[in-house]
Amino acid sequence: MSGPAYVDALDLAAGAVLVCAVVTLWRRDLRAIVSALSIQGIALGVVAAVLAAHEHDVGLGVIAGVVLVAKGIVIPALLRQLVRRDPGSRETAASINVSASLVVAAALIVVAFLVSGKLTALLPNTATHLTPIGLATVLLGFFLLVTRRKAVSQIVGLLLIDNGVALVAFLLTAGVPLLVELGASLDVLLVVVVLRVLASTMHRALGPFDLDQLRELHD
Amino acid sequence: MLLYAILCVPFTAGIVAAIVPWARWVGYLTTVANGTVLCLGIVLAARTTNRQAIGALDGALRADALSSFMVVVIGTIALLAAWQGIRYLGVEIEREQSSRRHGALYALLVQIFVTCMLTAVLASNLGAMWIAVEATTIATTFLVGHRRSDRALEASWKYIIICSVGIALAFLGTVLVYFAALHPVGRAIGSSSIQSHGAGVLDWTSLMAASGHLDPGVMRLAMALLVLGYGTKVGLAPMHSWLPDAHSQAPAPVSALMSGVLLTVAFYALLRFKAIADGALGIGYSRTLLVIVGLGSLIVAASLLITQKDYKRMLAYHSIEHMGLIALGAAAGSSLAIAAVLLHILGHGLAKAVLFLASGEILILEGASEIEKVPALLARRPVLGGIFGFGLVALLGLPPFSLFVSELNMIRAEVAVGLGWVAGISLVCMAVIFAVVMAHGRHLLLGGTPKSEASVATSRLVSIPLVSGLLACAAFGVLAWPLQPLLHAAAHVVVR
């Protein structure tokens, strides 16, 4: 793939990653948040696929497939099971309201653009100019993680960070070496499985819970 | 062959432990396996002290003096932890707090945990090292939550969330290093600037060779992310908050492994990246970062230790202090400083493992983890109390234990490179911690009204490993041979 089609496709897919990140901050319904995460995973896979087509890189194509299946389908499915245990669940305990969150999100996106100047300066091209989007996704994930209190939202925050890092990796270097990338994807999958099991165990032990209730250990 | 064996032996023992339900002989099997790792680590150290590196598996595994030193540390602590684990699981199953199946899962996860740490220090590819460090988080989460109480579950949730975030940042840092290595600056275009787009770029040797040509702007951002990211796993401020919870809630042998080696394996990763970043940026940049996180950790540890009422949490905050000291030593960065840092890694690992294992035994016998509820240990349980007391003495950095030597050398090195003010602040924090721990320790060992009950003997399964751990820690403080050449060779790996 080359020329304007490549640029448009890459811009569109990377933009979708960021829009999904903002949607997770905007929506309160946990099911909607998980759906946004699922779309983000698919968009991330598309970014990798577009880059693979552009660079004629078969290894990257394989990774694109793995990312699409793992982050677009498997991980969201695991999270949906968790949401279903606690029907009608909404993120009500957030410590910051939606409009304030969106303002902070805008500020974080600006910060990401400022920070990534050094990165794009080393190798200016279509792909690296999009790296601020990856960094912004990382920052938004951080923000989601520290302001939300439902187990599912915290897992989503963690995954936003991870997707952001993966996006930066694809855009800057067309993915780290194949084995490392596959190992990293497998690790993420395992972390989500572990978190999923842990959340179920906690659900059994404590009933429907907000993480705010976990205050026994603090100084 | 040697490197394969180091990875395969503990893993195979774990598989065996997973297949059969827990029994005492399985515990001895894992102990022997981890002891074998220690012996192989010593052989490896003897072969790499001459500054030759050993490779295996087409260069995917690589051991230089620094790696083999870490293998020795991991082997030592894993041996102690597995030995005490026999007693720990035995008591748990006897009291029906967990089943034999659950015990098998525990043994499997501990062996996987040990194997992951060994892989991290033996991987030549820094991306593979990252995967192994991340895998330790996955393996230990269920170990932290082993007791399945509300508190243990809370601790493991915090642990995996915070550490996964940290390790994700470290991955971003690794990606940026890779990006910088793919596009070296300051070389004639067409000579070797277009490197093969393969795994070799992230190899330690090629990164070290190319470090002078890495783009400084990218490397600054990368190193900041790596310090923050791997710093999370090391337990350095500001991302330390998982550590006291995880270390106080995990079963004693797991706490010993986490505090004794997992923290320093993450620090090992930081040392490697520091060497690469120093090549690109000069020593000043990473020194500033490490001074900030090191002093931050010392201040956090000193201020939060004062209010601790729980002896396992006290030990956990003490780990944050020691990681801060190690970070400051690494900030100094001379070869004297790095040798002292490595000796401190070993000494702290031994002393902290002994203390956590002893505190596990105290928890088993007394059933309380508050300092208030466990007075006059020395009168009631002389051997256990003595071990705990000498462990505290070692940890506070008093002679003859090796932590005294390493702390002294780190401070000397800091003063020598003009970080005297940093050494001054760290001494003040250490003095505060010394006073607090002495007060807690006095109550624990001597204080209160000694009850009239007769003194109780301590199980040999506990006393033999712990006393030998303490003796080793003291021996390394007095004898320079056999360790000194290895430490210098290891320091030379990361100091130019």
Give structural notes.
- The complex is a heterodimer of chains A (219) and B (496).
- Chain A has 219 residues and is mainly α.
- Chain A contains 8 helices and no strands.
- In chain A, helix 2 runs parallel beside helix 7 (151-173).
- Chain B has helices at 2-19, 24-48, 65-94, 100-122, 126-144, 150-182, 204-210, 216-234, 242-249, 252-281, 283-305, 311-332, 335-366, 377-380, 382-395, 402-416, 420-445, 460-478, 483-494; strands at 54-56, 61-63.
- In chain B, helix 3 (65-94) packs antiparallel against helix 18 (460-478), helix 8 packs parallel to helix 11 and helix 13 runs antiparallel to helix 15 (382-395).
- By secondary structure, chain B is mainly α.
- The relative contact order of chain B is 0.10.
- Classes of the chains: A mainly alpha (219), B mainly alpha (496).
- The interface between A and B is large, with 43 and 55 residues.
Number of helices of chain A: 8
The total beta strand count of chain A reads 0
Q: In this structure, how is the largest beta sheet of chain B organized?
A: 2 strands, antiparallel
Order of helices and strands of chain B: HHEEHHHHHHHHHHHHHHHHH
